[in-house]
Amino acid sequence: MDLTTRTRLDDQAPAFRARGSSGLLDLRRQLGEAVEAWLTRSPSAETRDGYSRDLFQFLDFAGVPGDEWEKLAQIRPGMVSAWRDRLLERGLTNTAIGRKLSVVRSLYGYVRTYGYTGANPADTAFVAAPPVPRDGKTVAITPEDCRRLLDFPTPETPEGVRDRAILAVLAFTGCRVGEVNRLRVGDYKRSGGHQVLEVCGKGGKERRMPLHPEAVERLEEWLSAIGPSEGGDPLFRPLKTARGKGRDGFLPSPLTRRGLQYLVERYVRTLGLDPNVTVHSFRVTALTTARERGADIVDLQDFAGHADPRTTLGYIRNRDRLSRSPAYVLKY
User: Fold this and answer.
1) Residues in CB range of 214: below 8 A, 6 or more apart
2) What is the spatial distance between Cα 27 and Cα 23, in angstroms, rounded to a whole number?
3) pLDDT for 145-171, tens place per residue?
4) Handedness of CA 221, 222, 225, 228 (dihedral sign)
5) Nearest residue to 55 via CA among 110, 112, 10
6) What is the CATH code for 143-313?
7) Domain residues of the chain, as ranges?
């Protein structure tokens, strides 16, 4: 039997165990149900949007129309490898490519649990993800530069008071940008003798973050500046006008993720710091600095809201490793 005939027979074989007819329309329906269930299983809208975006990017590359789900059964590892190579050619980072491959792998793993009997074409046994550097890509901030950032916004304007509070939350909690973006006034509260923020993280997971006294002081100043607020009001809000610097008030909507990113970029640029420093750099910096000062990895994992301690270790930079490099002792 030649390869073409074998492939044709494989494509027509029943794809679900004990699920009735193996006809085209039935296969389309069963796979469609499985994909929809996979896309909606996370309570996080951001996670669902990200998975959906990555999946449809792959389907577009593979030439699979969004409603012809039965064609998922025809995807082979070579197609996934070709997509990986195309992403590399486009200049995406290894981390981003690894994430996209994991989305496709997760989908097939889910539909197999759902009853699909085919192989997972994105399994690591078939398709290797590009290696990710041990220290990751996100630039950490030195403690000295972090202090410069914290102290730079002026407390003389409402905008400066807001920005001082935002930078303190980022530096002393290591929160993700989306977590800061979602904070409400009511998430700042007292619990067991501690001032805390109740943070909603990835996948809707909630955790309670005790606050450093400096962050508490700056949040109190900010809440005083904006006046009476309801618990459901956004904690951090955009300016009504850029020229007013907050003196004419703030909008009732939350400061967007892009707004938070631009805020950090603006201060980094003004201070002449490494232009690769981002909002996420505060998260890396908080975890790295806490580890250097003796924090246990289990406590850091809880602090970061990670499900796996290996993820936490990926955020911790060895700032002294470069200084100890043999490159500095070479003489010729």
Assistant:
1) 150, 168, 172
2) 6
3) 999 999 999 999 999 999 999 999 999
4) negative
5) 110
6) 1.10.443.10
7) 14-113, 143-313
